[in-house]
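Section 5: illustrative case.
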C-alpha cells in the first residue's frame, strides 16, 4: 500500500476541508488492504461458496456504510466537538505511513466530560488503527460532497486490526483499544446516542416550560434541557472501556467487549446469541443489526413509545435539538415538527431513519431476524445482499497463529488439551469452533444480569419472524410480501432466552474459542483482564489508557484461576468507571487451578493450548 497520487490528493481534501478543493464535486474513500498486507488472507479459511459474493463481502466489510456518515457527521457531530476534520487529518499526515494501532489526535475544542475538561492541543488516544502506508483509518469511509466532508463507519472499524509486530492487518481481529466511547463523548451531540446510557427517564431534564414539542397526537410535551442531557450522555459514553461498545438501546450503560469476526461454526451470534435466525445461521442478522440499529438512532423513532415510553417527535426532538448541521437541527420555536425537519433533510425519505433500508411490513417491531423491521441494503442489489456477502467473507477468516514456545510444543499442547478435557471445558466448548451453540441463562453463568436483558423491551411489540425472500430487489417493489422464517421447538426456547423474552432472565451464548490470542480481555463484558508488562496488574484499570492492551496469557489465566479472578473482580469493583459501565469480570466460575487439582505447569499448558486455537477443527 504505497503513497499513491490518489491518496495524497485525498489527504489534501481532508486537510483543506473543502476550501481550496471546492471545484472537486465528489470524493469518497475507505481503505482496503491488499492481500500482501494481510497477516492471514481470508482464503486460507473455508473456501467461499460464491466467489462474487465473497468479493462483495470483503469490499462491504471495509467500505460499506449504508449511509451512516449522515447520522454520524450531521446529527451526532463526530467532527464538530473535541475532534475536528483538521486535527484528524493532521494526525494521519504526521503518521507518514508508519501504521499504528492507536492514532493520537489533538483536541480541537474544549470539551467537559464530568469533572474532566479536555483542552485544545491535548493529545487523546483514539485507538483507531491505520495500516502501514495508508492515510486513512481502517473502517472509516471519508466522503467529500461539494464542500461538505463526512465520515462514516464500516465493519472494519471494530473487526480489523493493525499488528505492529508484523506490519500486517489482521482481518477479523477485534480492535481491542478502540476508544469509541470517548470519541462519542467528545462529539458535539452525544445526546443522539443517549438511549445507550443509563438515562432511564427524561423527566429530570425537562426543566424549561417554554421548550416544548408538538406530539404526533396533537398535544405538547416538554423537551429535555439540551445542555444538561448532553452533559449526562457524555459521562455515560465516556465510561465505556477501550475495546468495548454499547450496542443495546435499553437506557442502561452496559457495553460489551468487541467480538472477533472469526465466525465460522460460531453460531448463534451476538453476546447473548440473539442473532440466530436467517442467512448464515444468524450472522447476517448480526451484521444487519450494526447498521439498522447501532449506526442510526433516528431509525428508532417509530418504536420510541414501546422502547422508551416517548412520543416519536419527543424522541426525535431530543436527538435533533443539538444537531450540528442546521439542516437537521430542531428548533422548538420553529414551525416544523422534528419529523418534518428530519424528512426535509433525509437522503432516504421513503424509509425510517437516515440509512439505506428495506422496510418490512412489521417495522418498527422486532421479529427475531431484525431488531426493528429494517434491513440495511444497498440500491441496485438484492435486499440484504451486502450483509450476506459479509457473512460469507467473515466465515472464511482464521486467526493468525499465536506465538508459542517451540521447544516441546507438541507435548505442551497435548497436555493443555488433556487439561481442557479433564477440567470439563469441552462440555460447553465443543464442536468445530469450540462452542456447543447454546445460550446459558444469566443466573447460571453468573455474569452481569442487565446486559442479558438488553432486548427485553422489544417483546411488547414483537412480530412473527419474517424476511424478504432471497433475491428480492432493492428498492423493494410495491406489494412485495415477506416470507415467514421458521422458529420451532428447542430453537424457539433458546431465542427467547437470548432476547430475555417469555419470562426468561436473558442469557449469554457459549462463545467460540477461535483467536483468543487476538481477543483479550475476556467474558462478554471484557472484565477478565490482566494488564501487560511484568506488573500484570489485575482488572481493566491499566487498559483505560489505550496505549496498553490486556495480556492474553495472563487474562486467560484469570479466567480459570479463582484466586487471580478474585483480584480482577476486586480491582474492577474499586474502579468507578468500571462500576458505571457494569464491567465486573464476574461469572463463568469454572476453574482449572490448584483448587481443581490442576498444577501450575498444567495450567500453563492449558493457557498455551487455548492460545493456539486459530481455526475451526475439521
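Designed sequence:
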Amino acid at each position: 500500500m504505497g503513497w499513491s497520487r490518489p491518496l495524497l490528493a485525498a489527504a489534501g481534501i481532508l486537510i483543506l476541508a473543502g476550501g481550496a478543493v471546492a471545484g472537486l464535486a465528489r470524493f469518497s474513500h475507505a481503505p482496503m488492504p491488499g492481500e500482501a498486507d494481510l497477516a492471514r488472507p481470508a482464503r486460507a479459511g473455508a473456501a467461499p461458496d460464491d466467489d462474487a459474493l465473497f468479493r462483495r463481502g470483503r469490499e462491504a466489510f471495509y467500505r460499506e456504510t449504508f449511509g451512516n456518515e449522515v447520522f454520524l457527521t450531521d446529527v451526532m457531530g463526530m467532527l464538530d466537538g473535541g475532534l475536528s476534520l483538521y486535527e484528524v487529518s493532521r494526525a494521519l499526515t504526521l503518521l507518514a505511513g508508519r501504521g499504528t494501532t492507536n492514532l493520537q489526535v489533538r483536541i480541537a475544542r474544549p470539551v467537559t466530560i464530568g469533572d474532566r475538561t479536555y483542552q485544545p492541543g491535548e493529545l487523546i488516544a483514539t485507538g483507531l488503527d491505520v495500516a502501514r502506508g495508508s492515510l486513512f483509518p481502517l473502517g472509516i469511509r471519508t466522503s467529500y460532497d461539494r464542500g461538505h466532508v463526512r465520515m462514516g463507519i464500516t465493519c472494519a472499524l471494530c473487526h480489523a486490526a493493525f499488528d505492529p509486530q508484523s506490519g500486517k492487518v489482521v482481518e477479523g481481529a477485534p480492535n481491542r483499544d478502540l476508544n469509541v466511547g470517548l470519541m462519542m463523548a467528545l462529539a458535539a451531540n452525544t445526546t443522539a446516542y443517549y438511549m445507550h446510557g443509563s438515562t432511564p427517564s427524561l423527566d429530570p431534564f425537562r426543566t424549561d416550560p417554554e421548550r416544548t414539542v408538538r406530539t404526533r397526537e396533537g398535544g405538547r410535551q416538554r423537551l429535555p434541557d439540551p445542555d444538561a442531557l448532553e452533559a449526562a450522555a457524555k459521562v455515560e459514553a465516556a465510561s465505556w472501556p477501550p475495546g468495548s461498545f454499547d450496542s443495546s438501546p435499553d437506557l442502561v450503560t452496559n457495553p460489551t467487549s468487541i467480538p472477533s469476526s472469526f465466525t465460522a461454526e460460531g453460531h448463534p451470534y451476538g453476546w447473548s446469541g440473539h442473532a440466530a435466525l436467517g442467512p448464515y445461521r444468524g450472522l447476517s442478522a448480526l451484521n444487519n443489526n450494526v447498521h439498522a440499529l447501532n449506526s442510526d438512532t433516528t431509525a428508532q423513532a417509530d418504536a420510541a413509545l414501546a422502547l422508551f415510553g416517548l412520543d416519536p417527535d419527543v424522541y426525535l426532538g431530543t436527538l435533533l435539538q443539538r444537531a450540528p448541521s442546521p439542516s437537521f437541527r430542531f428548533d422548538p420555536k420553529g414551525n416544523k415538527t422534528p419529523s418534518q425537519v428530519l424528512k426535509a433533510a433525509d437522503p432516504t425519505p421513503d424509509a425510517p431513519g437516515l440509512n439505506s433500508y428495506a422496510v418490512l411490513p412489521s417495522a418498527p417491531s422486532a421479529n427475531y431476524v431484525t431488531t426493528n423491521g429494517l434491513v440495511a441494503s444497498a440500491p441496485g442489489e438484492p435486499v440484504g445482499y451486502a450483509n450476506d456477502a459479509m457473512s460469507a467473507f467473515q466465515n472464511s477468516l482464521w486467526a493468525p497463529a499465536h506465538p508459542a514456545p517451540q521447544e516441546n510444543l507438541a507435548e505442551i499442547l497435548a497436555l493443555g488439551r488433556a487439561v481442557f478435557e479433564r477440567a470439563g471445558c469441552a462440555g460447553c466448548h465443543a464442536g468445530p469452533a469450540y462452542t456447543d451453540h447454546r445460550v446459558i441463562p444469566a443466573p447460571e453463568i453468573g455474569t452481569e444480569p442487565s446486559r442479558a436483558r438488553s432486548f427485553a423491551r422489544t417483546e411488547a411489540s414483537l412480530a412473527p419472524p419474517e424476511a424478504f425472500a432471497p433475491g428480492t430487489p432493492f428498492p423493494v417493489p410495491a406489494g412485495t410480501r415477506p416470507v415467514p422464517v421458521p422458529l420451532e421447538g428447542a430453537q424457539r426456547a433458546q431465542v427467547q432466552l437470548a432476547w430475555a423474552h417469555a419470562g426468561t432472565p436473558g442469557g449469554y451464548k457459549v462463545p467460540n474459542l477461535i483467536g483468543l490470542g487476538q481477543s483479550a480481555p475476556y467474558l462478554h463484558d471484557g472484565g477478565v483482564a490482566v494488564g501487560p508488562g511484568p506488573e500484570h496488574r489485575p482488572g481493566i484499570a491499566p487498559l483505560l489508557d489505550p496505549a496498553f492492551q490486556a495480556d492474553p496469557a495472563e487474562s486467560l489465566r484469570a479466567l480459570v484461576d479463582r484466586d487471580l479472578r478474585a483480584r480482577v473482580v476486586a480491582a474492577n469493583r474499586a474502579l468507578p468507571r468500571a462500576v458505571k459501565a457494569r464491567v465486573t469480570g464476574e461469572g463463568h466460575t469454572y476453574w482449572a487451578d490448584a483448587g481443581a487439582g490442576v498444577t501450575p505447569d498444567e495450567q500453563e499448558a492449558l493457557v498455551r493450548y487455548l492460545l493456539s486455537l486459530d481455526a475451526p477443527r475439521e
